[in-house]
Amino acid sequence: MLLGSFDLDLDNLKSIILVVLTASSLVYACYLIWNNLLKREAIPKTLRPLPGPPTRPFVGNAGQFNPLAPYSTFQKWAKEYGPIYRVKLGSQTYISVNDARIAKELFEKRGNKYNSRISTHVGYELLSQERRITFTPHGDKHNTFRKQIHNILSISKTRDNQRFQELESRQLLKEFLEYAGSAESQPSDVQQIFRRYTASIMMTLSFGHRIKDLAADGLVKTIFTIMEGFGKAIQPGQYLVDAMPILKHLPYAFKPWEQEVDREIKWQWPFMYGLLQRVEEQMDKGIPNIGLIRQLSEQRKDMSEREREEKFLDDRSIGYQSMTLMEAGADTTGITMMNFVLAMLLHPEAQAKGREAIDRTVDDSRLPTFEDLPNANYINQIVKEVMRWRPVITLGIPHANTTEDEYDGYYIPKDSIVYGNIWNINRDPSRYEDPDSFHPERYDGVTGSAFELSTVPNALDRDHVTFGWGRRICAGMHLAERSVMLVAARILWAFEIEPARDAEGNIVPVTADFDKAYDHSVVASPKPFPVSFKVRSEKRKQVILESFRDAELTWEEMNLDLFADVK
């Protein structure tokens, strides 16, 4: 665990720091003794404690699993302790839910108890100014933030957003043509092609600004820097204060994590506020902007400062809300597309069946469209299986219960951190035969979207649980699923995905081993891997180039470069 960076000159303060840290350690030790030995959970006599792995004094189960990749240990514990069990980190209770029916019961039917969040001190309270919706506790603020996001990501907005997905996927195909035709192409290029596609869509929806060139776009580079800093701040174990809340009461001079955040806020907030100011100046000039930041600005135009605060339309709320779409969707959807390519590379039989489904629906004279997808359901099956097989967030984003509860005779303490263990539920062998295999045929006859299937009464009839549950279900799931489906259909229409070969013509081996071939942090992302894209015909190549030229003309009319001068 890290305390954070310390920029002060400490030459003359070493003894003071030693005294303060020693005193803090003693105070925290006393707190742990009280919390672990003297303060006992008052479990009603009629209930039992949840099962779980044996704990050690004071630390609980800390050190028994990799905090960046806990999925394998949690899967082993599920086999040993059952569909719901507890883990202790210090005095904090964590609960792993490993059964779809229990998850539906707790997160949906009892959602009024389980729809909150436990917020981190550094990542949420300090760096996010308590305004990032993903970690906002249940209440009026979260409900308001979710409605604001829903206005741009709802099903009713799906058709409006389709035009951006349709246009951006044309550039994606053109970039894969360039990748296929260049001897200097690198494995990381594939990742960047997908990242530009997803980031451009989310930037358009957030700020009314599209990304022509990922490497040259100053606005998105700065936003990615902010995203990376936030991702670091919410990493388990990154800051000692998140595990030792008593450290919050130290003098400011001895809180390097807070000083670090203040340095970040000092440049981040002026940047975000500058975007908001520019949008409002454009509004005054009558310049159109389709982004969320414009919508929220319009809603508050005639409000007083007090009313803006009450309705969470103050400057900081709008600034962080506009960032939310990028943080939630820019990388996760792109990673899913990388998983799709990896699956097609390793399972050529599934790739061939997907291509056949597209070819039965669309000839070589035009690109597949959203309207074609219902007639090529195997694409839907491939995408569902990709999301089940390799979920981007393995344990899901944790819920928190606001009151004590009971399930099946087990006591659930108030303020527990409750995970819907996506990795385990998506691998339930009673639901998915040979769950570790990639097998789209398991969805034969399934035609509903992920959202439609998330609402079915029987939890076992759901396709997968990758998007979460209840009031905390991914607000952008419609956009994400349809983005992946369109891109999958167009890639299979245009290209053969084949193994890369070395200078001697030998196939370069690729693996999907989740331990070795993936980077694990807040999300699980495949490491760049060598792959070859081979365009299927000269005619299809010309269709791609012509469709991209048409897209460029459309983009000129849409005026989506309002922040092109941001460096």
From TrEMBL:
A UniProt-annotated Pfam family: p450
The keyword Iron appears for this protein: yes
Keyword set, alphabetical order: Heme, Iron, Membrane, Metal-binding, Monooxygenase, Oxidoreductase, Transmembrane, Transmembrane helix
Residues annotated to bind heme: C474
Transmembrane segments: 15-34
Cofactors: heme
InterPro entries, per database record: Cyt_P450, Cyt_P450_CS, Cyt_P450_E_grp-I, Cyt_P450_sf, Cytochrome_P450_fung
Keyword Iron annotated: yes
Gene Ontology MF: a single term: monooxygenase activity
PANTHER family assigned to the protein according to its UniProt record, in alphabetical order: CYTOCHROME P450 MONOOXYGENASE ALNH-RELATED, P450, PUTATIVE (EUROFUNG)-RELATED-RELATED
UniProt record similarity statement: Belongs to the cytochrome P450 family.
The protein's name: Cytochrome P450
Lineage: Eukaryota, Fungi, Dikarya, Ascomycota, Pezizomycotina
